[in-house]
Amino acid sequence: MFGHLLDLILGPTDTTGLARPDAEVALAALLVRVARADGFYDDSEKTRIERLLARRQGLSAEDARALRETAEGVEAEAPDTVRFTRALKDRIAYEDRTQVIEALWEIALADGARSADEDALIRLAAPLLGVSDRDSGLARQRVARRLAEG
Protein backbone atom coordinates (compact mmCIF):
# COMPACT_ATOMS: atom_id res chain seq x y z
CA MET A 1 0.00 0.00 0.00
CA PHE A 2 2.69 2.48 1.01
CA GLY A 3 4.94 1.54 -1.89
CA HIS A 4 2.75 3.32 -4.43
CA LEU A 5 2.48 6.43 -2.26
CA LEU A 6 6.21 6.44 -1.61
CA ASP A 7 6.86 6.16 -5.35
CA LEU A 8 4.54 9.09 -6.04
CA ILE A 9 5.89 11.28 -3.26
CA LEU A 10 9.52 10.32 -3.22
CA GLY A 11 10.10 9.43 -6.84
CA PRO A 12 11.70 11.74 -9.36
CA THR A 13 9.90 14.91 -10.26
CA ASP A 14 8.05 14.74 -13.52
CA THR A 15 6.41 17.37 -15.67
CA THR A 16 2.89 16.33 -14.67
CA GLY A 17 3.50 17.25 -11.04
CA LEU A 18 2.33 15.65 -7.85
CA ALA A 19 -1.40 15.27 -7.49
CA ARG A 20 -2.84 17.37 -4.69
CA PRO A 21 -3.81 14.33 -2.58
CA ASP A 22 -0.22 13.07 -2.77
CA ALA A 23 1.10 16.49 -1.78
CA GLU A 24 -1.18 16.31 1.26
CA VAL A 25 0.30 12.91 2.18
CA ALA A 26 3.77 14.49 1.97
CA LEU A 27 2.59 17.34 4.21
CA ALA A 28 0.94 14.95 6.64
CA ALA A 29 4.13 12.87 6.78
CA LEU A 30 6.14 16.01 7.60
CA LEU A 31 3.67 16.84 10.38
CA VAL A 32 4.06 13.35 11.79
CA ARG A 33 7.84 13.62 11.54
CA VAL A 34 7.83 16.88 13.50
CA ALA A 35 5.49 15.43 16.11
CA ARG A 36 7.75 12.40 16.51
CA ALA A 37 10.98 14.45 16.53
CA ASP A 38 11.09 14.85 20.31
CA GLY A 39 10.51 11.14 20.91
CA PHE A 40 7.03 11.78 22.28
CA TYR A 41 4.07 11.11 19.96
CA ASP A 42 0.77 10.74 21.75
CA ASP A 43 -2.95 10.89 21.04
CA SER A 44 -3.12 14.66 21.58
CA GLU A 45 -0.53 15.21 18.83
CA LYS A 46 -2.37 12.81 16.54
CA THR A 47 -5.60 14.71 17.17
CA ARG A 48 -3.86 18.03 16.50
CA ILE A 49 -2.53 16.70 13.17
CA GLU A 50 -5.98 15.43 12.22
CA ARG A 51 -7.62 18.78 13.02
CA LEU A 52 -4.99 20.64 11.05
CA LEU A 53 -5.42 18.34 8.03
CA ALA A 54 -9.22 18.57 8.24
CA ARG A 55 -9.08 22.37 8.41
CA ARG A 56 -6.63 22.66 5.48
CA GLN A 57 -8.49 20.29 3.19
CA GLY A 58 -12.07 20.41 4.44
CA LEU A 59 -11.86 16.73 5.36
CA SER A 60 -14.18 14.84 7.63
CA ALA A 61 -12.73 13.62 10.92
CA GLU A 62 -12.65 10.09 9.51
CA ASP A 63 -10.80 11.16 6.33
CA ALA A 64 -8.31 13.23 8.33
CA ARG A 65 -7.63 10.25 10.60
CA ALA A 66 -7.11 7.99 7.56
CA LEU A 67 -4.71 10.54 6.02
CA ARG A 68 -2.74 10.76 9.27
CA GLU A 69 -2.54 6.98 9.54
CA THR A 70 -1.33 6.71 5.94
CA ALA A 71 1.22 9.45 6.61
CA GLU A 72 2.52 7.61 9.69
CA GLY A 73 3.37 4.61 7.53
CA VAL A 74 4.92 6.72 4.79
CA GLU A 75 6.96 8.72 7.31
CA ALA A 76 8.23 5.58 9.02
CA GLU A 77 9.49 4.17 5.71
CA ALA A 78 11.04 7.38 4.36
CA PRO A 79 14.78 7.62 4.96
CA ASP A 80 14.96 11.40 5.22
CA THR A 81 13.05 14.68 5.33
CA VAL A 82 14.58 15.97 2.10
CA ARG A 83 12.35 13.76 0.00
CA PHE A 84 9.14 15.15 1.50
CA THR A 85 10.27 18.74 1.21
CA ARG A 86 11.42 18.23 -2.37
CA ALA A 87 8.06 16.68 -3.25
CA LEU A 88 6.33 19.78 -1.90
CA LYS A 89 8.77 22.46 -3.04
CA ASP A 90 8.79 21.33 -6.65
CA ARG A 91 5.03 21.25 -6.87
CA ILE A 92 3.42 23.97 -4.76
CA ALA A 93 3.56 27.76 -4.73
CA TYR A 94 5.71 29.71 -2.26
CA GLU A 95 2.67 30.93 -0.32
CA ASP A 96 1.58 27.33 0.19
CA ARG A 97 5.09 26.41 1.32
CA THR A 98 5.02 29.12 3.97
CA GLN A 99 1.70 27.66 5.12
CA VAL A 100 3.44 24.27 5.36
CA ILE A 101 6.02 25.83 7.70
CA GLU A 102 3.21 27.39 9.69
CA ALA A 103 1.55 23.97 10.01
CA LEU A 104 4.84 22.45 11.17
CA TRP A 105 5.21 25.16 13.81
CA GLU A 106 1.61 24.57 14.91
CA ILE A 107 2.41 20.93 15.65
CA ALA A 108 5.74 21.78 17.30
CA LEU A 109 4.30 24.51 19.54
CA ALA A 110 0.98 22.86 20.38
CA ASP A 111 2.20 21.39 23.65
CA GLY A 112 3.40 24.78 24.87
CA ALA A 113 7.08 23.81 24.88
CA ARG A 114 9.72 24.20 22.19
CA SER A 115 11.77 21.08 21.67
CA ALA A 116 15.28 21.45 20.26
CA ASP A 117 14.65 18.42 18.05
CA GLU A 118 11.42 19.87 16.63
CA ASP A 119 13.10 23.26 16.11
CA ALA A 120 16.00 21.61 14.30
CA LEU A 121 13.69 19.69 11.99
CA ILE A 122 11.70 22.79 11.06
CA ARG A 123 14.92 24.77 10.58
CA LEU A 124 16.04 22.01 8.21
CA ALA A 125 12.70 21.86 6.38
CA ALA A 126 12.29 25.62 5.82
CA PRO A 127 15.27 26.15 3.47
CA LEU A 128 14.61 22.80 1.79
CA LEU A 129 11.14 24.13 1.00
CA GLY A 130 12.70 27.36 -0.21
CA VAL A 131 11.21 29.33 2.69
CA SER A 132 13.46 32.02 4.11
CA ASP A 133 14.51 32.09 7.77
CA ARG A 134 12.62 35.36 8.12
CA ASP A 135 9.37 33.91 6.75
CA SER A 136 9.77 30.81 8.92
CA GLY A 137 10.25 33.01 11.97
CA LEU A 138 7.19 35.07 11.08
CA ALA A 139 5.20 31.85 10.63
CA ARG A 140 6.32 30.71 14.10
CA GLN A 141 5.26 34.05 15.60
CA ARG A 142 1.81 33.86 13.93
CA VAL A 143 1.27 30.35 15.27
CA ALA A 144 2.46 31.31 18.77
CA ARG A 145 0.02 34.25 18.81
CA ARG A 146 -2.87 32.05 17.67
CA LEU A 147 -2.09 29.39 20.27
CA ALA A 148 -1.79 32.01 23.02
CA GLU A 149 -5.17 33.48 22.07
CA GLY A 150 -6.73 30.08 22.46
Task: Provide a quick synopsis of the model.
InterPro entries: DjlA_N (IPR007791), TerB-like (IPR029024). The N terminus is likely disordered.
Produce the secondary structure layout:
Blueprint: H1 2-10, H2 20-36, H3 43-57, H4 61-77, H5 82-89, H6 94-109, H7 116-128, H8 133-149
Helix pairs in contact: 1-4, 2-3, 2-4, 2-5, 2-6, 2-7, 3-4, 6-7, 6-8
Pfam families: TerB
Domain Co-chaperone DjlA N-terminal: 25-141
Describe this structure in words.
InterPro entries: DjlA_N, TerB-like. Residues 25-141 form the Co-chaperone DjlA N-terminal domain. Pfam families: TerB. It is a single chain. The protein is mostly helical. The protein has one domain: TerB-like, CATH 1.10.3680. Helices cover 75% and strands 0% of the residues. The chain is built from 8 helices and no strands. Helix 1 packs across helix 4 (61-77), helix 2 runs parallel beside helix 6 and helix 3 packs across helix 4. The longest helix has 17 residues, at 20-36. The radius of gyration is 14 Å and the shape is globular.
